[in-house]
Write a structure and sequence with these properties.
The complex is a heterodimer of chains A (about 230) and B (about 325). Chain A is mostly helical and about 230 residues long. Chain A is built from eight helices and no strands. The chains are: A mainly alpha (about 230), B mainly alpha (about 325). Chain B: One of its GO terms (molecular function) is oxidoreductase activity.
Chain lengths: ~230, ~325
Amino acid sequence: MSGSLYTQLLDLACGGFLLAAVIVLWRRELASIIRVFALQGVALAAIAVLLGAHEGRGDLVGVGLGVGILRAGLLPYLMRRALTVIDADRRRYSVAVTETRETQPLVNVAASLLTAALLTLLAYAAARPLTELHATPATRALPVGLAVVLIGFFVLVTRRRALAQVVGFLLLDNGITATALLATSGVPLIVELGVSFDVLLAVLVLQILTTRVREAFGTTDIDDLRELHD
Amino acid sequence: MSTAVGYAAVAGQVVVVGAGAPVLTGWMRQVRARLEGRAGAGVLQPWRDARKLLRKEPVTPIGTGPAFRAAPALLVASTAVVVALVPLLSTDTPVSGHADLILVVALIALGTLALALAGLDTGTAFGGMGASREMTVASLVEPTLLLSVFALSIPAGTTNLPAIVSGAVHEPARLASPAGLLAVAALAVAVLAETGRIPVDNPSTHLELTMIHEAMVLEYAGPDLALVELGAQMRLTLLLGLLSSLFVPWGIATGTSWAALALALVLFAVKVALLGAVLAAAEVFWAKVRLFRVPELLAGSFLLALLAVTASYFLSGTS
């Protein structure tokens, strides 16, 4: 693969990766948020495969494929299943429509989009010294990973629906994986496997927790859990 | 010889946009009518409307001042100046040295401001409401317009629009970068908002409460109304042409030959007609968003533009 084509494709994958995080912040339908998250998984897998192909490392390509299967296939599938349960309940008992939508985030959408802009700039400023150490196309894209970590944190903090918060957590993890890939040209296979299983287990546990929360309170609005403090 | 071609290009841009803008609007209405299963009024209908309006006697409401009377002429004049400046047919014209991005955006804003002042000048409730809404949208659109073109100006190293366009003609790889793609998305949303097309404003509405642009010009009649409509149509043509020049620049004359200029003219008409048809077809399927959702849409497009700028600054490796 020629150098300039590799740079272009890597830039394109990183651009798509960051754009997906922003669109997660923009959309309200939980179903479309999950779809965008799956697309982000594809972009992350593309980054790993591109790095692996560029450096001629087969294990990195394998990591990329694994990441793709997990984050573009399995995790969205699990979340969609939790959503269909909620949706079916809504139809049966005619509960309010708000269950499948993020109607009232703590910070409104326009303000959170502007915050995302600030967070991206912050990530660029923070990654500056790291980029200057060794400027390759991969390290130059490092701020993208950091920006997604920050946006993931932001989603985790400001959204009310349990599923939206799970997506926030997974954005955070996608960002960390991307940062690791871009900064160190790929983590060892065993580490990546461990992280992936961790994430998978966390999502399984959170899915069960979400279902239980909804059964106990009739909603997945996390703010209603305040009563547990007393 | 070369200056003759340059002057011909400038004159050609003004004439083509001035005469073609009503035809473009008619064409978009026709596409829309056909998609909705109607016969449509034909592509020349806006010209017939203009002829009818121009024959009427000029009427101004009692109590309106110079702002109301000057606004239509100012709108058309400022748009015509921008049309002469931006590279629609050729990047090598006698005035191309002055076609700075900031000047172009400021001239576009001047037309908007003139109309808003005219809306306020009438003193009616709808005029004031339309003006306030138009300024709200405009204040959110201007930064997006500036930033999204700025993202393209970073690889070119200048804010001169003809230089950006001719740079893109010679290096098409610049446009396929993430910065280019983000910038085109942001600029498209900004163009829709600036020209009052459907997700932001409905150009064919007759319900005053949902109007933005139309509410400001409710009091105009006769030749003034014809000028206001011509101005709005020219702005639509200009912004669609600018969008096509920046992102599909192939075919624009970069040298000084008559053949290239003729080819550029044909390609410009084809590109703008195609963009207009796509826009009209999309409008059939879209609904107007609520006024309180408009800032959200525009904040999103601003964010896309900002990401385009950061991406072109950091990823491209020129830093």
